[in-house]
Design goal:
This protein is mostly helical. It has helices at 9-41, 46-55, 59-70, 75-85, 88-96, 105-113, 117-130, 135-160, 175-185, 191-210, 213-229.
Length: 257
């Protein structure tokens, strides 16, 4: 409840969420289109590529899996390598879990399947602004801005991507990373956040260039937060009230609208 005439913080945060998600929709569409082209080049049919995007739904891991299949890797090894690549999602889930204490297990399982880098970034920023779990915000971030555009673009890439000789020439391969980088800037509110972001970026890019992009993503995602934890916490000169990072189930502000 809000006082008469006072702005509703949840509605205000939802409007910002929608605006922030516009760039993600564009990025997911461009990146999904490139994935569709890559899948078609690897011999995947539209049904196979579409099923992979629906069932797996993990952009970077899907690209890696296709490369592993083409290289002749065994299925157990592919599953193991892509699991390592997606290990960062354990950190995402740990950050969202306090907001969802007591929620049905089936609900959390569905949310886990739809959890991506983009959904997490949009959701955690939204929930921190409101200080509560807003499922409408999560479904918007996970389904509207990412799942639907990614899957539609995958099919488009498989079906019509062959007419584009070199999609990287148009910059389609950098749309998604650029959108995510811009969104991540808004999540940096303290010295720990900044240290983790910088360390993760340096490690990820360095290892990716020197060895393997998948390994760079994995090591950057795992070691960056550890560096952040070693830095004394503190805000970056921002004032005003902030929502708690980890509300408890007994907090009257925790709820779903």
């Amino acid at each position: 409840m809000t006082a008469a005439g006072a702005p509703d913080p949840v509605r205000a945060s939802r409007r910002r969420l929608v605006l922030d998600g516009l760039g993600i929709i564009v990025g997911a569409s461009g990146f999904g289109f490139v994935f569709g082209i890559s899948a078609a080049d690897a011999g995947y049919s539209a049904i196979e590529a579409g099923a992979m995007s629906v069932i797996v739904f993990a952009g970077a891991a899907q690209f890696a899996a296709i490369g592993y299949v083409v290289s002749g890797f065994s299925w157990p090894l592919i599953a193991l390598l892509t699991a390592f690549l997606n290990a960062r999602h354990l950190l995402y889930a740990a950050s969202l879990a306090p907001y969802l204490a007591g929620r049905p297990r089936l609900l959390r399982a569905v949310m886990a399947h739809l959890l991506t880098d983009e959904a997490f970034a949009l959701t955690i920023a939204h929930w921190r602004r409101t200080g509560r779990a807003d499922l409408w915000g999560y479904w918007w971030a996970a389904i509207v801005t990412t799942f639907i555009p990614w899957n539609l673009a995958t099919l488009a890439g498989v079906l019509i991507g062959g007419s584009i000789p070199d999609p990287t020439r148009f910059g389609l391969d950098v749309i998604f990373p650029a959108a995510m980088a811009g969104l991540a800037v808004g999540l940096v509110t303290g010295r720990r956040d900044l240290a983790a972001a910088l360390a993760g970026a340096v490690i990820g890019v360095g290892v990716g260039l020197a060895w393997d992009p998948a390994a760079g993503l994995l090591l950057g995602g795992l070691l960056g937060p550890l560096v952040g934890l070693a830095v004394p916490d503190g805000r970056l000169g921002r004032t005003g009230p902030t929502a708690p990072d980890a509300p408890t189930a007994t907090d009257p502000g925790v709820g779903v609208t």
